[in-house]
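dude i think i finally got it to work??
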Amino acid sequence: MWDAFVDAYRAIRQITPDDFEAAHRFVIVRHIWLMGEYASRA
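look at this
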């Protein structure tokens, strides 16, 4: 699904390499945050 989203976005507007790398880093941070959310409810 991620690849389809990126391909569709790039069809309309370019993504700079720095912005694309930043998006990947935010995904990692989001996963860590979600693990904390789940752990706090355990």
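The mean pLDDT is 93.
im so relieved honestly
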